[in-house]
Each structure stands twice: as structure tokens, then as C-alpha cells.
Design brief:
mainly alpha; rod-shaped; 98 residues
Length: 98
């Protein structure tokens, strides 16, 4: 109950103070606005830069995965070509023997 009463008293005093010192309030607001804009802009630049770095990192990882897949396919093709070569040599040897 005392918390509620304290809140009501503080709100009333704040409203009365705002009415009497309206011009001072606006002066403080005018002074604080550029600082808030600057800090908000700096935060937006930081978040944007971090987002760009994340996208670059993801793209690089995707390219590395594709490169690894291509290397595996090349190794598979080499192994199959080697099997075909061995089969061809075996068939040539059988033909010479017959």
C-alpha cells in the first residue's frame, strides 16, 4: 500500500514539475536528442557491420563445403578411372594369353 501511495505522490509531483519547468524540459530534450541519435546510429553501424561479417563467414563456409564435395567427387572419379584402367589391363592380358 505504501508503494502505491509513494508512486501516486511521485507521479503528481512529476506532473506539477513538468508543467512549471516545461521549457527546461524541452531544453534538456533538445540537448539529449543529438546524443541519442549518435549513439543509436553507432549501434546500427556496429550491428550492420557484424551482420555483414556473419554473411561473409557463412558464404565462405558454404564455398568450403562445396569445394570439399567437389574434391570428394574428383577422388571418387579418380578411383573409378583407376578401376576401369585395371579392368582394361586385365582384359588386354587375357586377350594376349588366348
Amino acid at each position: 500500500m505504501s508503494l502505491l501511495l509513494g508512486g501516486v505522490v511521485a507521479a503528481v509531483i512529476g506532473l506539477i514539475s513538468l508543467i512549471f519547468w516545461w521549457s527546461d524540459f524541452l531544453a534538456i530534450l533538445r540537448g539529449a536528442l543529438p546524443i541519442f541519435l549518435f549513439l543509436g546510429g553507432a549501434l546500427a553501424v556496429y550491428v550492420g557491420f557484424d551482420d555483414i561479417q556473419d554473411k561473409i563467414r557463412e558464404e565462405r563456409q558454404r564455398q568450403n563445403e562445396e569445394l570439399e564435395r567437389a574434391r570428394e567427387e574428383i577422388e571418387s572419379a579418380k578411383a573409378q578411372a583407376e578401376r576401369y584402367r585395371d579392368e582394361l589391363d586385365r582384359l588386354k592380358d587375357e586377350k594376349k594369353q588366348s
